Amino acid sequence: MLQIDCPYCGARAQSEFSYERTLDSIVTVEMPANEAVRRLYARANPRGFDDELWRHAFGCRQWLVLRRHRQTHEITSVAAFDPALHR
Amino acid sequence: MKRYSALALLKAGLTGQRGWEQAWRDPEPKKSYDIIIIGGGGHGLATAYYLAKVHGLRNIAVLEKGWIGGGNTGRNTTIVRSNYRQKPLHDLFDFALDLWEGMSDALNFNVMFSPRGALFLGHSDGDMTVLAQRGDALRCDGIDADLLTRAQVQKLVPLLDMAPDARFPIHGGLIQRRGGTARHDAVAWGYARAADALGVDVIQKCEVTGFAMTGGRVSGVATTRGPIAAGRVGICVAGNSGPVAAFAGLQLPIEAQTLQAFVTEPVKPMIDTVIMSQSLHCYISQSDKGGIVLGGDPDQFPSYAQRGLPPRIEKAAAEAIALVPALSRLRMVRCWAGTTDMSFDGSPILSALPVDGLYLNGGWCYGGFKATPASGWCYAHVLATGDNHPLAAPFAFDRFVRGATIDEAGVGVLPQLR
Lengths: 87, 418
Hints:
Chain A: This is Sarcosine oxidase subunit delta. Chain A: Pfam families: SoxD (PF04267). Chain A is mainly beta. Chain A has one helix at 33-41, and strands at residues 3-6, 10-13, 18-22, 49-55, 63-69, 75-80. Chain A has a single domain (3-80), classed as Folate-binding superfamily (Folate-binding fold), CATH 3.30.2270.10. A 4-stranded antiparallel beta sheet of chain A has the order 3-4-5-6, with no helix packed on it. Chain A has a two-stranded antiparallel ribbon with strand order 1-2. Chain A starts with a strand and ends in a 7-residue tail after the last strand. The mean pLDDT of chain A is 94.
């Protein structure tokens, strides 16, 4: 199992966290329809690193941004989610 | 191709098992093919076979980066059924079931298709309502489905925990008697051998690393064994659709996830049907070798690791033991994982892509094995004619943009929710 270093709680088991979506697929209300559709349905789905939105669902319930390798599971950064930055 | 038969077996038995020929050739890639299929799994090999058999094409290659039977075809839990709720899905899967029934004869290869029945358990009044509704939808389209009472389920699977205080009480079930299991790697081998006999080049250890483009159209592939030209190229690499489509600059509504399965030590026959619970998401069957094959949830986050998290195994095992307490006495001997192509409505994508000459067969989520023959049949149709087969028409790539998704679970765009 992965260990995720929550910036609020410290290192915790992955089973406390839930994956939400990639950072580049967040859809906002004011977004034009074609951009919203692209963000909903197009994924790079790389065999490598991607930036992902996770939630410490069974812990502090905060939203987190992970940079994670999808084949080796290496996690290079875990940061608090900032709605002003990530949209 | 020398035909397999009881007589051939007898003859070889009397002559020291000499004289068996290789099941398929190991050809060098040619400079050019009419159609190249990327991915030598069950779906890709079935596609090649039907291209040759139904459409009479011969200049076809299947490129496989590993070996035949080494990918998802050999990693699933071998369950075959067609009892989906939605019409486009059950029509496609039932066409597959018809082909499963005649597959061993058609391929001259024993795929050990065993229609032992596929049983969904109902654990509540709500479950039974959903199962009855699903059964009605199936019967309206001429697909077999029988709603079972609690007593009928007990008679069918005597080892189920039917106690009133059972962890997961059983109220009844829905069975598709034509459903069952098949030997998964035999399906890949059977299609490979039959396609090879019709002149298809099955090329192993040949990984595609890019596409050649001519005037905006795909004109071939770059591989680890050199460039190969092609009239049409079909991607058929479920689990890796994203990275392969990325060679053509495309992004798909697909995310890769890990799905695990595990098997116990072999025992005498104890479960002679396929038991599934969609409320729990746990499935149990017994292989012909005697092992109890079990599976559960995907890992629910993107991964290509082909190894999964222990909590998923723990959950599936706990559910299976709660349903069939006798399983608690068995030792687990093996667990493994495959990479599933999780599409964003839970249904496959089977059509042309927005790049000329390029086609996609993928997004099968965790349910592709049972579709193998129909998937190959329909994919061969679109690769040969350029038009989607009527059964595959609802599964076109552009359905997401059109809002015409086929969402069996009704959970929307996030694959980890299905």
